Amino acid sequence: MKDASPFEITETLHEGRGTLVLRGVRTADDLPVILKVLDPRRSRPRDLERLKREYEIGRQLDLPTIVRPLALETHEGMPALVLEDFGGQSLDHFLGAPLPIERFLDLAVRIAAAVGALHRRGIIHKDLKPQNILVNASTGQLKLADFGLAVCSSRERQAARSPSLIEGSLPYLAPEQTGRMNRAIDSRADLYALGVTFYEMLTGRLPFEAADPLEWVHCHIARIPQPPGTWVPELPEALSALVMKLLAKMADDRYQTARGLAHDLERCLSEWRAKGRLEPFVLAEHDVSGRFEIPQKLYGRGEEIAALLREFERVVGTGSPELVLVSGYSGIGKSALVRELCKPIVRERGFFVSGKFDPYKRDIPYSTIVQVVRELVLEILAESEEQIAPFRERLMGALGINAQLIVDVIPQVELVIGRQPPVAELPPLEAQNRFRIVFRHFIGVFARKEHPLALFLDDLQWADPASLALLEDLVTHAETGHLLVIGAYRDNEVTPLHPLVLTLRNVRNAGARVSEIVLGPLSWVHLAALVSDMLHCRPEEAAPLSDLVHEKTAGNPFFTIQFLTALHDERLIEFDERASAWRWDVAKIRAKGFTDNVVELMVGKLARLPARTQEALKQLACLGSTTDVAVLSAVSGRSEQASHEDLWEAVRVGLVLWMDGAYSFLHDRVQEAAYSLIPEEQRAEVHLRIGRLLLAKLPEEVIAERVFDVANQLNHGVALMTDPREKETLCRLDFQAGRRAKASIAYASAQSYLAQATPLLAADAWRTQYEETFALYMERSECEYLVGNFQRADELFDLIFQNARSNPDRARVYRLRIRLYQVSGRYADGVTVALEALRLFCVTLPESDEEIQAAVEAENRGISASLRGLRIADLLDAPVVSDPDGRVIIGLLVDSIPCAYNARPEMFALHVVKALSFSLRYGNAEETCFAYCAYGIMLASVFGDIPSAYEFSEMSLRLNEKFNDAKLKGRLLFMHGGHIHSWRRPIATSVPIMEQAFLACLEVGDLVFAGLVTVLTVWLVLETGSPLDEVLRVAQKYLAFARESHNDAVFHTIQLERQFVASLQGPTLEPANLDDRACDEAESLALITGATFGCGIAFYHVMKHVAAFIDGRYREALDSAARAATMLGAVMAQPIEATHHFYHALTLTALYPQAPAPQQREFACTLERGLQKLKLWADNCPENYLNRYALVSAEVARIEGRDLDAERLYEDAIRSAHDQGFVHNEGLAHELASRFYRARGFGRIADMYLRDARACYACWGAERKVEQIDQMHPRLLPSRPLSPAATLALRPELLDLLSVTKASQTLSGEIVLDKLLRTLLTVVLEQGGAQRGCLILCLEEGASIEAEASFEGRDVATKLLESQRLSSSLVPVSIVNYALRTKERVILEDAAEAGKYASDPYLARVKPRSLLCLPILQQTEVVGLLYLENNLLAGAFTPDRLVALSLLATQAAISLEKAQLLRKEQAARAAAEAAERRAMFLAEAGAVLSESLDYQETLARLAGLCVQSISDWCVIDIVEGGEIRRIAGAHKDPTKASLLEELQRRYPPCWDSPHGASRVLRTGAPLLVPELSDDVIRGLVVDEEHLKVSLALGARSSMIVPLVAHGQTLGVLSVVSATLERRYVRADLALVEEVAHRAAMAIDNARLYCKARDAIRVRDEFLTVASHELNTPVTSLRLTLQSLDRSIRGSRSGEMQAMAKLVERALRQGTRLARLNKALVDVSQLHGGRLPLEPENVDLATLLRHALDQLKPELSQARCSVHIQDGPQVVGHWDPDRIEQILTNLLSNAIKFGAGKPIEVFWGEEGGLARIVVEDHGIGIDPARQERIFECFERAASENYGGLGLGLYLSRRIAEAHGGTLQVQSQPGVGASFTLELPRVGRPAPRNNEERGAPA
Question: Least crowded by CB within 10 Å, which of 221, 993, 1363, 1608?
Answer without folding.
Answer: 1608
